[in-house]
Amino acid sequence: MVKNSYNNESISSLKGADRVRKRPSVIFGSDGVEGCEHSIFEVLSNSLDEAREGYGKTINITRYEDLSIEVEDFGRGIPVDFNVRENKFNWELVFCEMYAGGKYNNDSLQVYEYSLGLNGLGLCSTQYSSEYMVVDIRRDGYQYNLRFEKGENIGGLKKEKYTKKDTGTKIKWRPDRNVFTDIVVPKEYFLDVLKRQAIVNPGIKIVFRNQVGDKFEETEFLYKNGISDYIQELCGNDNLIPIQNWSIQKNVRDRDDKPEYKAKIEVALTFSNKNHVSEYYHNSSFLEYGGAPEKAVKSAFVFQIDSYIKQLGKYNKNESKISFSDIEDCLIIVISSFSNVTSYENQTKKAITNKGIQNAICDMLKHNLEVFLIENPLEAEKIVSQVLVNKRSREDAEKTRLNIKKKLTNNIDVTNRVAKFVDCRSKDLNIRELFIVEGDSALGACKQARDPNFQAIIPIRGKILNCLKADYNKIFKSDIITDLIKILGCGVKVKGNKLGKDVPTFNINLLRWNKVII
Q1: DSSP class of 355
Q2: How close are the terminal C-alpha atoms of the chain, in Å?
Q3: 3-class DSSP state for residue 163?
Q4: pLDDT digits 0-9 by tens, 84-119
């Protein structure tokens, strides 16, 4: 076999569209349908950022039968004309240049106060990973058109006068099967994601159109009051307390030597003995893995509710404190935070790590919870009672589980848990024989020669321990000796109460064998 040489010519770099097309999972987290879904979200997020800034209050997204997707907004329209500072057309920067975009100056509030897009990767990467992409932009009295195929621009920028007053961006594309292993994004994905975006973007209407044959099924999402309306939808009339809505806007920092940045936090919550939901969003992205907001909620709720239970003297004598799972079992909470500096765990934006946001959420929750519990003693009593019911039922269930496990374990033949022991089939004590042999080699030979119906084998090392000279603690710490005692079954007689917890007292009637052969 001829081996390829590894030399200076072996090193190469990916260029242009190949940076995404050959390694889509680096950007989208997967080269399967999950990655394809995330590419759709990247385009949608740009439209959401525009609408959140007040430019257009409706977004249309269409899923066509040929698996192409179209996202249309009525914002300002993406700037695509010539950029003097960069000495390039903006369409080249936005659609063909990684790490180029209009959201790098959010800390100075030049373009977007808060944005879901941050890295200048999403739109370009989606274009690179598409079979084709068609762009229609209306702004500054002009209509601009672009077409891309497999990451390459076809025909340059087309520009013509536009006399109507509306502005916005419409992008239609089909994910490439040569990039993603699966591009069949289910209807349910769109319904879930678009609903979540409507929840955390109050007042923005999102219309989903799904093509079935010649018709389009239309679903509309709009939450005028955002997460408060969503909490009401989740709990119905089963809430123990009225829905609470708390918000704060402040400057935070992730470390003392780091610069400050702006954060806006909104919390809606209630308690219920029937439902429990915890959802976290940042810059409108659903944080599937939570991160900083989830840590803040755990810390604040356990601290404040535990303190209140102690204050009321509700704990029984020697009772352990509550855990977050006891609170979570009756908590319905949604947190939507925004910041102009965000540290996501990765490009897929499923968790954030900002320490400043975590501390801000924790402090806000502690303060508001403390005030609420003091000012509303009747509602506070309901919360505490339900949390303690959750805690005690959890502990009782755990005790029951352990007792059942212990009972079932005791019913298992203890010899089945001894390493290298080979049992016989018969349970008749009048014929069962145990062979104690020296080492694994003897075990192998005896296994072939024995009668498996009534002859069992246990191998041990040649020299174990001189039990005549050793004390009981040392004897019963020997795994070989305790294994032999377990297998013999009749326990051991010693002077005084010096048996280990796993060593039963001697009873010859419990011997499991008719013969023991060494």
Answers
A1: H
A2: 56
A3: coil
A4: 888 889 899 889 887 666 554 545 445 566 665 544
